[in-house]
Design goal:
The complex is a heterodimer of chains A (265) and B (363). Chain A has 265 residues and is mainly alpha-helical. In chain A, 84% of the residues lie in helices and 0% in strands. In chain B, 25% of the residues lie in helices and 36% in strands. Chain B starts with a strand and ends with a strand. Classes of the chains: A mainly alpha (265), B alpha+beta (363).
Chain lengths: 265, 363
């Protein structure tokens, strides 16, 4: 009996210690950053015209990319949550590729696609992506849509299909069922998915720089500004951008946590 | 109103096997069975929420084929009720009216009628159903289902999560609703009491098969199989053999253990046939020593020793031994009969295994 008690205690000590080590590790990272940045750098960086356009471009692109991603992910997530069909596993796997794939590989693949004959025809005659702002949106969308599908699928899986059955028997058609029952019930989850997608998009680097490049003042997003800042050895500006992304991450994570707690209710 | 002919379906390792059901218009039909018998599955198939592989299902004359029917109004109250959490109580109830673009005045008058019928006037203004009790939620779900004036109302275990006394109240309410609105009801339950109190006719289902269909009293007095008899707690089941049959008098003599029991001959039994003799615990009659024997209890009289007394809400279960029977018999008596006959203190009683209450199932 005493032996068991000793094991129990040592297990508690072990897990708490591990938790302590990792929390301390991340806290030290953030703290070091905070200590390295001089007080005046915040103002110098964030109030400059260049950083304003960088942040604005990042926010606009991430927002468009996540809205587009949601537009695709809502019906797809719903379908994957509700229906089983032949080849579903294959489709599921295909849609998951961008989650696992290295973003720079995804970007390269996109470049190859855009460089192919039909791709070039599209670029020349309809809309051009390479080394343009639209390329940032395309790159971010391609990375983020898979994430949005995953999380919305989980959201719809949590909603009992009985609600939809009952609505259907009460006279709704499938569109009405989706719009008046499924969508409102998924509201918190949808907002959470959007925020997650947005946060992933605003921090996206590998695919963005491959497709759109990092042209100062033209296709410069926050992550590419960090990259360019490091190349120019402009440490203070770079660190302010890093802290800005950390700040966004913290706000997003807290918001999502609150929203999902409400959704589970 | 509902006709199921030879419906078969399989879901994983579970099979619905050759199901036949016939529910008349205006009937309250109850599908009774233990959990896992496939009741919900069958209901979902009848609603068109699941596909079936063989057979035929008609609801209101329309063929159900793996899609919910559009051509006839049916309402469905699932086991978990599915009261919409994002809508107010009022909007929940009038949901069907809004979807069907009912005239505002009509919506108001129907709401009034249903809230009076179901006593839910006081909760109509709640902005969310989250704070409703289970009984209130149940009423809201019923009101919502009735709002669209369904021709058939499907209820899946409607009372299973309610406290006993609320359940009784709501069961009475449901009978009233059926009489007032004359709607056909198909109800699924695992609860005997619910079935016997509400059903015009019922079916018992085990393992994806319908074991018997009939009126509640047929189930009480004439269970079709041993499984049904056991499920409906006909506790006294003995192996027996037919000795003599008198077709003219419609009586027969059977041997149960060392006893000979007279019985009514319901079926074409032949002498020498092996059967199970069944008598419900409520039908074992304790003879009052101070009173003359009534006409129905003059046969099959035996001495019995009470071995155990178990209290129930309305009376007692007595376990008594009769010499010559391999197992003790179970007897149900009401509280007042128990007190009247002083059964708390005596251990010897005379009982009649009433001839007309004995039922036989071929072995």
């Amino acid at each position: 009996m005493n032996g068991r008690r000793a094991f129990n205690i040592s297990f508690s000590v072990f897990s708490w210690a591990i938790l302590g080590i990792l929390t301390a590790y991340i806290s030290v990272i953030v703290l070091t950053l905070l200590l390295r940045v001089e007080g005046s750098s915040y103002g110098d960086t964030l109030l400059s015209g260049r950083s304003f356009s960088t942040i604005r471009l990042s926010v606009i692109c991430a927002t468009i990319a996540s809205v587009l991603a949601l537009f695709f992910a809502l019906p797809i997530g719903y379908l994957l949550a509700r229906k089983s069909f032949r080849g579903k596993n294959l489709v599921d796997t295909l849609l998951d590729i961008p989650i696992i794939l290295s973003p720079v590989a995804m970007g390269t693949a996109l470049l190859v696609l855009l460089g192919s004959d039909p791709g070039r025809f599209f670029e020349d005659n309809i809309v051009s992506f390479t080394f343009a702002t639209r390329g940032i949106v395309l790159a971010q969308f391609s990375i983020v849509v898979a994430l949005a599908i995953r999380s919305l699928k989980a959201v719809f899986e949590q909603i009992d299909p009985r609600y939809e059955d009952v609505a259907y028997f009460l006279g709704c058609n499938r569109w009405q069922t989706f719009l008046t029952v499924s969508l409102p019930l998924a509201k918190s989850g949808i907002v959470a998915s959007f925020i997650l997608a947005w946060a992933r998009a605003i921090g996206e680097f590998g695919a963005t720089i491959t497709v759109a490049g990092a042209v100062r003042g033209k296709t410069e997003t926050i992550p590419s500004a960090i990259y360019l800042g490091l190349a120019d050895v402009d440490i203070q500006e770079t660190l302010v951008y890093v802290l800005l992304l950390i700040f966004v991450a913290v706000v997003v994570l807290m918001a999502v946590r609150l929203l999902t707690a409400r959704a589970v209710r | 109103m509902i006709k199921v002919t030879g419906a078969c379906a399989s879901f994983g390792s579970f099979k619905l096997d050759d199901v036949h059901l016939d529910v008349a218009e205006g009937e309250h039909f109850v599908l009774l069975g233990p959990s896992g018998a496939g009741k919900t599955l069958l209901t979902e198939i009848m609603l068109g929420l699941r596909r079936y592989s063989r057979g035929d299902i008609l609801v209101g004359g329309h063929r159900v084929r793996g899609e919910p029917l559009d051509s006839i109004t049916v309402s469905y109250v699932p086991q978990d009720l599915a009261v919409f959490p994002h809508l107010s109580v009022r909007d929940n109830i009038t949901f069907g009216g809004r979807v069907r673009r009912m005239d505002g005045g009509l919506v108001g008058s129907k709401l009034e009628e249903l809230s009076a019928l179901l006593n839910i006037g006081s909760i109509l203004d709640r902005r969310s159903p989250a704070t409703l009790s289970m009984g209130e939620k149940q009423r809201v779900a019923l009101a919502r289902a009735l709002f669209v004036e369904p021709r058939v109302l499907f209820l899946d275990e409607p009372f299973s999560s309610l406290d006993y006394y609320i359940k009784r109240q709501l069961m009475e309410k449901l009978r009233e609703i059926k009489d007032v609105l004359s709607v056909t009801i198909f109800q699924v339950t695992h609860d005997h009491e619910e079935a016997f109190m509400l059903a015009d006719r019922m079916a018992v289902m085990f393992d994806g098969r319908i074991a018997q269909v009939g009126t509640p009293s047929e189930f009480q007095t004439r269970p079709a199989t041993l499984e049904v008899a056991r499920f409906l707690l006909a506790q006294n089941i003995f192996e027996a053999e037919v000795e003599q049959v008198d077709p003219a008098a419609r009586t027969m003599l059977t041997r149960v253990g060392d006893l000979r029991l007279a019985a009514a001959a319901f079926d074409n039994f032949a002498p020498g046939q092996k059967v199970h003799a069944v008598i419900r615990p409520e039908e074992v009659h304790i003879i009052r020593p101070d009173r003359p024997l009534g006409p129905k209890v003059q046969e099959n009289l035996f001495e019995a020793r009470i071995q155990k007394r178990i209290r129930t809400p309305g009376g007692y279960v007595l376990i008594a031994r009769i010499d010559g029977l391999e197992r003790p018999v179970e007897i149900h008596v009401s509280n007042c009969a128990f007190d009247d006959m002083g059964l708390g203190t005596t251990s010897k009683v005379r009982v009649s295994l009433k001839a007309e209450s004995l039922w036989f199932i071929p072995r």
